Amino acid sequence: MHDSVLSHLRNTLHERLTRHGAHGEHGEHGEHGDVDQARGAGRLFAGDYSASATVGEEFADSRLGVGVMHDLDGEVISLHGTTWRVPVDGTPREVAPDEGVAFGVAAHGGREHEFVIPDGADVEGILAAIDAYLERTHVDHEEVVCAVEIDGEFSSVVLRTVAPPTHEHETLGEIIDDETRFTFDHWNGTLVGFRFPDVTDGQTIPGLHLHAISHDTTTGGHLRNATTVRTTARIWVDELHPIHDVAGTQPDGDSSMDFSRYEGPVT
Ligand SMILES: [Zn+2]
Q: Which of 6, 123, 124, 255 has the most Cβ atoms closer than 10 angstroms to its Cβ?
């Protein structure tokens, strides 16, 4: 099972990494939407923070998206056509379409599913609610990519952002070891992101990956912890589709990467 998922991911990655001009194909999104990823996660974590796409190329017409700015100048969140970066001071700023992202994942089109996340759910509880919904609707969550939007009231929120590298060849892991965290006892806003397959060849970030923007757009970042108080949640279920990475094409996945250490909940 896992082997076939891995080879599926590898095949779609190969297709993505060897196709050119794939970002010109946006716009033909039917009921079956798609999820685009700019740059493999492996290259990002290895320290390539150059722009792999512009904000416009990656997020124009998207439903939602997450990413990180070129040169790690902030975590990126895109929602309903507006894209923000959250630099190291923690204050979201809108970004222009011609600015570059080092990494981005964007959801386009697709059919919307509403589902319920129980009040009092932490990040693991949110993931369990997504997976329970997928199981009930007979969609095999081990092979699909879900875009997720959770809006409402949360407690015990921990957001993080990253600072640009302080020396050459600093890996993303080293940088995240020094991540800046912002904690909120009570927080109102929207979480957006993706539930990717748990298996990865190092090119996709496995599991649940959420970024956050508050309703008043004064706080945001990559979500580390949160507990739902009262929320509404929607997902779009899709497979992963072509990547556009103008900066290079060599795959360099590292399946031993401990993504959860850097991207998962903090205890
Ligand atoms: Zn993130």
A: 123
CA distances from 54 to 3, 31, 38, 100, 231 (A): 34, 26, 9, 4, 32
Quick check: 178 and 163 in contact, CB under 8 A? yes
Going from the Cα of 20 to the center of ligand 1, the distance in angstroms, rounded, reads 26
Same domain as 254, residue 124:
yes
Give tens-digit pLDDT for 91-132: 999 999 999 999 999 998 877 889 999 999 999 999 999 999
What's the gap in Å between 206 CA and the centre of ligand 1?
A: 11
Among the candidates 75, 90, 108, a domain finishes at 108
Alpha carbon distance 202, 117 (integer Å):
29
pTM for the complete prediction?
0.83
CA 155–ligand 1 middle distance (angstroms): 19
The contacts of residue 11 (CB under 8 Å, 6+ apart) are none
Write out pLDDT tens, residues 207-255.
999 999 999 999 999 999 999 999 999 998 875 544 445 454 445 556 6
Give the pair of three-digit tokens for residue 119: 């009040």
Reduced DSSP (H G I as helix, E B as strand, rest coil) percent helix, strand, coil of the chain, to 5:
20, 40, 40
